[in-house]
Amino acid sequence: ASSTTMTVSSCVAARASSGAGxxxxxxxxxxxxxxxxAASGRAPPVASAVPKGSKVLVVGSxxxxxxxxxxxxxxxxxxxxxVSRNLDAARGLFGSPANLELRVADLRxxxxxxxxxxxxxxxAVVSCTGTTAFPSARWKDDNGPEQTDFVGVRxxxxxxxxxxxxxxxxxxxxxIGVERTNQMPFLVLNLFGVLKxxxxxxxxxxxxxxxxxxxxxxxxxxxxxxxxxxNTLLRATSGTRMAVDLVEGDTLTPEETSRIAVADCAAxxxxxxxxxxxxxxxxxxxxxxxGSDAGAWEKLFxxx
Length: 304
What we know:
- About 35% of the residues lie in helices and about 15% in strands.
- The chain has about 300 residues and is of the alpha/beta class.
- Strands 3-2-1-4-5-6-10-8 form an 8-stranded mixed sheet, sandwiched between helices. A two-stranded parallel sheet has the order 7-9.
- The radius of gyration is 18 Å and the shape is globular.
């Protein structure tokens, strides 16, 4: 499943409607990326962008965000290795389009993950796994936040380092609030540790040496789409709420974030030097947005 931790939407909506965090939308940096990186102490980009035609591993591929990421990457000209725990579900969702390889793996089992060799030969990774913030049926069979958001991510990062040492980018879909667990509404959202474990997974990736991009959406909307094929997924829209707010760090508290925008952002981040080794909060609102326009996303990454 995708990053669906924002299940206390009323808390987030109340926070957003009060104006908290909304002023963060206006924060725009005017400096070029290398100068901005130098000023912040961050290393400048090293041109690790992933060119079209490269092979991208997508885990959590049948979840609400993952299914859209697979569709967007195929449409953009990437070869995709889509991984899930249920091969039949993946076949039913995706069919057998060109440039798509379906594989099975369980990220929670490090030995089995290593043996599966799902990371061998990939140029990039997009991780879209996640579970609910509060106890639910999805926690069955040891599928709670610690195993899903920390252990699974740690195992995937380690497997990527071992099996694909030349990996150009690792995009991790996380959540807003991971650095604000002492503030409302995130204090409530983190009662069972989901944000703590997501942040622990982020830290493993950030210290791995793999060029990374972390995406931190708010309450997820649009999908999941349970009976769509690839072409229908590509036609899914957010109606008129397509404008995107993208802010580096963890200061934005959007009312919502469209899964479609998260997928577009993940695909765009692979090709962007300006997205390298950075974490972004992501929200959507009324208005026109970047969609799948790589140039428009590049401007957002550069100015965040």
